[in-house]
């Protein structure tokens, strides 16, 4: 399997009973050249904004469950298809999230 993309995008901050957390969308995509199949693993999680503590992922009831998608594509299209799948995942998370605040970087 050949790695196509491995990405995490911070979508913004959400308020939780335990304080503000970053909402993140993640994707890892691999291309199996023998079968001509793209495998994209999608995940959604929240994490603390405190840089001093070890990163820990949190899940909320409103977050979509992790998904694994399979697409039959040629090697020349694998990256573009993986990115499109990730962008759809980001849109799905934004729609599911309570109001997002701009990240403070």
Structure description:
By secondary structure, the protein is of the alpha+beta class. The protein has one domain (2-96). It is built from 1 helix and 5 strands, in the order βββββα. The protein has one helix spanning 78-96; strands at 2-16, 19-32, 37-48, 57-58, 67-72. Strands 1, 2, 3, 4 and 5 form a 5-stranded antiparallel sheet that branches. The model has no long low-confidence stretch (mean pLDDT 90).
Helix content: 10-25%
The rounded Rg comes to 15 Å
Summarize the helix and strand pattern as letters: EEEEEH
Number of helices: 1
* Average pLDDT: 90
The geometry reads as elongated
- The figure for the number of domains is 1
Structural class computed from helices and strand pairing: alpha+beta
Largest sheet: 5 strands, antiparallel
What's the total count of β strands? 5
Q: What amount of the residues lies in strands? A: over 45%
Which stretches are low in confidence, meaning pLDDT under 50 for 5 or more residues running? none
Assembly classification: single chain
End-to-end separation in angstroms reads 35 Å
Provide tags for this entry.
105 residues; alpha+beta; five-stranded antiparallel β-sheet; 1 helix; 18% helix; elongated
Care to give the gist of this entry?
Helix content is 18%, strand content 47%. The protein contains one helix and five strands.
Give the helices and strands, then pairings.
Elements: E1 2-16, E2 19-32, E3 37-48, E4 57-58, E5 67-72, H1 78-96
